[in-house]
Amino acid sequence: MKVRFFIYGVTGWGMEVFWTGLGSLVRGDWDLSGYTYLWMLPIYGLAVFLEPLHDRIRLMPWVTRGLIWAAVILLFEYAAGWLLRHLLGFCPWDYSAWTRYTLDGLIRLDYTPVWFAAGLLFEKYHDFLDRFFVKQTFTWRR
Question: pLDDT band at residue 23, thresholds of 50, 70 and 90?
Answer without folding.
Answer: confident
